[in-house]
Amino acid sequence: MLSQLLADHVLLHRALGFKFRTQGSLLRNFVAFAESRDEQVVTTATVREWALQAPSREQRRNRLLTVRRFALSLRAEDPRHEVPAVDLFGSASYKRRTPYIYSPVEIQRLIDVARQLGPDGSIRPLTYATMFGLIAATGMRVSEALAMRLPDVTSDGLIIARTKFKKSRQLPLHPTTRRALDRYLATRLKAASPSDALFISHQGTPPAYPTVITVFLQVIRSIGLRGAAGTPGPRIHDLRHTFAVRSLESCAHDSELVARHITALSTYLGHAHVTDTYWYLEVTPELMAHMAAASEAFHSGVSR
Q1: Catalytic: which of 9, 60, 271, 290?
Q2: Nearest 5 degrees, angle CA 184-CA 185-CA 188?
Q3: Where are the beta strands (DSSP E) in 130-265?
Q4: Residue 64 in 3-state DSSP?
Q5: pLDDT tens-digit profile of 246-297?
Q6: Would you tell me how many other CB atoms lie within 10 Å of the CB of residue 254?
Q7: Which CATH number is 209's domain given?
Q8: Neighbouring residues of 241: CB distance < 8 A, sequence distance ≥ 6
Q9: Catalytic residue among 63, 241, 280, 290, which?
Q10: pLDDT per residue over 11-68, tens digit each?
Q11: Is 94 known to be catalytic?
């Protein structure tokens, strides 16, 4: 019963335009847990027991809220379903994770080590070196890189057609980035593959998202930027943060230019609102120096 209710729930959300991948995966896990106990309705006790299996407080709360939304929709038609309290595990205390801003040297090391991946003679090392470099040079999302197809590479730049907010955009490329991409394409176009995906593995198929994250962690640990599994450290998503911050650094000396640049950066990153771009910005020594100089000039009555 719960399996069918979940199938209908997922179908409804996807019909409304939601990808519903992560939520769907969590809910399938919960439903399997509940049905293994021969339960046909959602109960608070089962939700709590299942959620407590998550390794961290944040993940337990995410499990709770995901099932709670599912239970709310089910209870609208069947009052037997219990809706667990939103504070079942206490009140939320979300803290923004401080992004890691990579230095140019660290990004180059990341790419160099990716080039050394195996198997020897395969496209795999070139795939990951180019993918990591392209993400760093454009700030694109990992999902966007994986969704790119060969026709998306044009003489005017990259066409990002499969975006988070279903809005296509074009990304002009720096000449050095374009040359690196062209070197990859020279090998990619010769590779045997049933797919037209831009990035493929040595098996000729597009790598899955979890596989990319696993490879990235392998590489980032090998250059000493992360510790053992389970320890925090730089993420692949921080390459996107780094791109945003370095872009702002390039014009931080001119306040009017910054205002125009933020709007352009928001479009380039594919954000729905410019306020979303602010989330990606992090203070760096260079930005702090510009801010201090601007503040001093303001108090001295000098416009910058």
Answers
A1: 271
A2: 90
A3: 153-154, 157-160, 169-171
A4: helix
A5: 877 766 555 565 556 566 666 656 655 545 555 555 544 554 454 445 445 4
A6: 13
A7: 1.10.443.10
A8: 99, 100, 101, 280, 282
A9: 280
A10: 988 887 777 888 999 999 999 999 999 999 999 999 999 999 988 888 899 999 999 9
A11: no
Please, what sign has the CA dihedral across residues 156, 161, 163, 166?
positive
Quickly state the pLDDT bin for 109 (edges 50, 70, 90).
very high
In the set 9, 240, 241, 290, the catalytic residue is 240
Out of 141, 226, 235, 290, the active site residue is: 141
Give CA angle at 44 (38, 48), nearest 5°. 95
- Determine whether 164 is an active site residue: yes
Q: Print the domain residue range for 56.
A: 2-75
Amino acid at 1: M
Is-catalytic flag, 237? yes
Per the structure, how many domains does the chain have? 2
Contact between 114 and 128 (Cβ < 8 Å): yes
The answer as to whether 81 is a domain residue is: no
Which residue among the candidates 37, 80, 164, 166 is catalytic per the annotation? 164
